[in-house]
Amino acid sequence: xxxxxxxxxxxxxxxxxxxxxxxxxxxxxxxxxxxxxxxxxxxxxxxxxxxxxxxxxxxxxxxxxxxxxxxxxxxxxxxxxxxxxxxxxxxxxxxxxxxxxxxxxxxxxxxxxxxxxxxx
Length: 120
What we know:
- The protein has a domain at about 60-120: 3 helical TM bundles of succinate and fumarate reductases (Up-down Bundle).
- About 75% of the residues lie in helices and about 0% in strands.
- The chain is built from four helices and no strands.
């Protein structure tokens, strides 16, 4: 005779928990480090103007680092917005539309950022 010590727990959802938590923390740390690197470069002696600003982003390593941070920002925003849509929007159709619009907007922002960075 089988002994039943309670009902099975039914867990629903996409099970993103730990991965999303790590993504939020890692991207936040990356964005913070980038901000510090940028602040150091901006606060170096000399007048602040377009030439200095363009000079900061003229090096390929800085363009690449900036784009990596932009992708991190987009990923960070996606995780946050997806969680908001999943938690607070109950109709599945509306939630899907909001997620697709959010993804389209974020991908568009990434493309625009790529265009701006490599135009400098």
